[in-house]
């Protein structure tokens, strides 16, 4: 991607020179003042942005002279696409797991909103949870030369889709405010995009773009614009009809989500193609499903009567499950009580650790004592406790392992390693 | 992200509800039947732990409630009061999407025949075919996947993978504990 970025950068530089020469007649002083102001602001923001330092270097190398103004722009998206793939990569891992709740919420929202058959756009409205919009604004600030507009506070995709007009005479770069607006009106005439609607309502929003974006700002911005369009500009050298733009938006969404999957599926870091990634994902899902089958078979084999009753549940004390053999159950209330769970877990851990070297005869009464305390809320008869098995010493290691595994409820990253350790154990 | 431990607790709770039905109902089932019952109850419990927020869970519940075996029982027991609401949602969504798919599939076949592929684009078309093939496979794997478009398919896959992991952890620990109990 880098080589084509260079080409476009060079072309842009040349074009900008040409354009600036053309623009000499216009009131330059005003433009320069405003440019300076904006540049200062932008520089401040550059320092503040920690994610996109690479990006800003790349961009500042490309653009030495002139400067675009930010904000007060009628026009939308940043005009280079070369930066955006980097942006995508940087954003996704950094903000990956922070997206979690917002992730699902926005997906739910996007699903419902994309049902009306719109050719170009779909509406996504994130209520500023992770303020990716804020990040994107910072990026735009870091870029500093482009005229940005953030239409919908969608996660990454809007500002990722950035573009430039294809015409030779008019260039986006280095445009002053007036020049920009005039160009925009011309562009609007040329384009058949949905851009036409934007110019009016954007003036309100663009003033926000200069400042450091907070989630409040983005939510304000997203509240202001009601229409359900994602505004996309056609890239240089590419078709500008709405179909291909929509196609590109969709493709970028897909690639963004594939990145999340890359984090989730182990061993996917080195694979870069879509087909390869899908392969890995398919293999992983198949292996997970096979594991489920295997485990259910194992449970069926071990348990001929399918009664998962008190004895079992006593043994799995690390679960916050009270002996739920009693059919109805205060089970749910007990189980979801985190304090109780933690208490059980702590006591079990202490027991497990302390018992590792001791003799069985000493251990079991203490174990029984613990069991009694755990089962205190439910009046478990002592017969259950007596009938519970005294695990032979050979099983203590597996017992410990089981408690640690079960009780720790590993997060997803550790599941793989735990599974591996379990496998070793079972071998 | 949802706290994985709360998901597991939720899943376990619902699964035990389902399993209690099993134990009370059938006295002598073959091992494969038992396995199916266990797996089904686990799947339904996992799907219901999502509370109908994801598409795959709704699809799973919908297919289970149509099932003749213990599916309906499980669904009723595990979902409880939400049962009717969720099954209605799932079935209605499925019907809409079925129609979309029929239309889509007929259109693409015709277009492919009429189009001529230049030599330069052969590689890209091959790549596209590979991707399409794998997408089809993934759609067959994820419950309810055939009704989704690519973008939502990937989201659903993400969620499904997480749920499967949680399910496996819980089942494994239960299996180990049971085995330990039985062996002593």
Automatic annotation (TrEMBL), chain A:
Domain of life: Eukaryota
Protein's name in the database: Transcription factor bHLH63
Organism: Citrus sinensis
TrEMBL record, chain B:
Gene Ontology biological-process entries: regulation of DNA-templated transcription
InterPro entries: IBH1-like, IBH1_N
Domain IBH1-like N-terminal: 5-67
Keyword tags: Transcription, Transcription regulation
Keyword Transcription regulation: yes
PANTHER family, sorted: TRANSCRIPTION FACTOR IBH1-LIKE 1
Stated name of the protein: IBH1-like N-terminal domain-containing protein
């Amino acid at each position: 991607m880098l080589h084509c970025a260079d080409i476009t950068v060079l072309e842009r530089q040349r074009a900008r020179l040409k354009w600036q020469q053309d623009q000499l007649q216009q009131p330059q002083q005003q433009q320069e003042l405003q440019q300076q102001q904006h540049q200062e602001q932008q520089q401040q923001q550059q320092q503040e942005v920690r994610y996109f330092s690479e990006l800003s270097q790349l961009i500042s190398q490309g653009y030495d002279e002139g400067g675009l103004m930010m904000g007060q722009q009628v026009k939308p998206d940043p005009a280079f696409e070369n930066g955006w793939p980097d942006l995508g990569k940087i954003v996704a891992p950094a903000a990956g797991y922070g997206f979690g709740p917002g992730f699902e919420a926005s997906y739910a929202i996007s699903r419902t909103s994309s049902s009306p058959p719109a050719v170009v756009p779909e509406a996504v409205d994130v209520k500023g949870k992770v303020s990716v919009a804020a990040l994107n604004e910072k990026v735009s600030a870091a870029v500093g030369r482009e005229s940005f507009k953030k239409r919908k506070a969608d996660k990454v995709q809007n500002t990722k889709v950035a573009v430039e007009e294809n015409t030779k005479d008019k260039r986006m770069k280095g445009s002053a405010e007036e020049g920009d607006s005039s160009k925009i009106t011309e562009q609007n005439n040329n384009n058949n995009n949905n851009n036409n609607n934007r110019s009016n309502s954007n003036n309100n929003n663009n003033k926000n773009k200069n400042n450091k974006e907070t989630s409040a700002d983005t939510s304000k911005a997203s509240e202001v614009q009601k229409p359900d369009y994602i505004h996309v500009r056609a890239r240089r050298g590419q078709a500008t009809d709405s179909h291909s733009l929509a196609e590109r938006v969709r493709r970028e969404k897909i690639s963004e989500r594939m990145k999340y999957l890359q984090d989730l599926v182990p061993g996917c870091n080195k694979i870069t193609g879509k087909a390869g990634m899908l392969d890995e994902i398919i293999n992983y899902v198949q292996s997970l499903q096979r594991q489920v089958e295997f485990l259910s078979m194992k449970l069926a084999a071990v348990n001929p009567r399918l009664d998962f009753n008190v004895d079992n549940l006593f043994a799995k004390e690390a679960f916050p499950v009270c002996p739920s053999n009693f059919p109805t159950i205060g089970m749910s209330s007990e189980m979801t009580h985190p304090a109780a769970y933690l208490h059980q877990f702590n006591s079990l851990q202490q027991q497990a650790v302390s018992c590792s070297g001791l003799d069985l005869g000493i251990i079991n009464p203490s174990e029984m004592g613990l069991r009694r305390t755990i089962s205190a809320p439910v009046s478990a008869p002592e017969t259950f406790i007596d009938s519970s098995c005294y695990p032979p010493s050979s099983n203590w290691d597996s017992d410990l392992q089981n408690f640690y595994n079960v009780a720790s409820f590993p997060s997803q990253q550790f599941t793989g390693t735990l599974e591996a350790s379990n496998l070793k154990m079972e071998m | 992200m949802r706290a994985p431990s709360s998901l597991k607790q939720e899943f376990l709770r619902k699964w035990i509800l389902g399993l209690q039905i099993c134990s009370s109902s059938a006295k002598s089932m073959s091992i494969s039947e038992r396995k199916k019952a266990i797996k089904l109850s686990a799947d339904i419990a996992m799907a219901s732990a999502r509370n109908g927020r994801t598409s795959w869970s709704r699809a799973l519940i919908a297919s289970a409630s149509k099932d003749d075996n213990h599916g309906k029982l499980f669904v009723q027991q595990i979902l409880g009061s939400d049962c009717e609401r969720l099954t209605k949602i799932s079935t209605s969504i499925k019907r809409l999407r079925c129609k979309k798919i029929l239309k889509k599939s007929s259109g693409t076949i015709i277009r492919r025949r009429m189009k001529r592929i230049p030599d330069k684009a052969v590689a890209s078309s091959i790549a596209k075919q590979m991707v399409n093939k794998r997408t089809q496979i993934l759609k067959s794997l994820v419950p309810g996947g055939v009704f989704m478009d690519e973008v939502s398919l990937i989201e659903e896959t993400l969620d499904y993978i997480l749920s499967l992991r949680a399910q496996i952890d819980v089942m494994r620990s239960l299996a180990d504990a049971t085995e330990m109990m039985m062996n002593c």
